[in-house]
Amino acid sequence: MSGAVWDAGRCWRCEADDVPVIWLGPVQTQEHGAGPFAACEPCIRRLEQLVETHHMQADRSA
Ligand SMILES: [Zn+2]
Question: Could you tell me the distance, in angstroms and rounded to a whole number, from the CA of residue 25 to the centre of ligand 1?
Fold first, then answer.
């Protein structure tokens, strides 16, 4: 995660407060529009695994 900017805040995945988080991108909701999706280090590690799995499955179906 080189170049990522860590900031103290709330993790939008596990809802831990006042932890180092990285902004991952806008999240789009049905009722309230876009929000800043940020996640803490353990959650980012898990998201990395999910994204990796997603791409592996996409590669297989191609
Ligand atoms: Zn988290």
Answer: 15
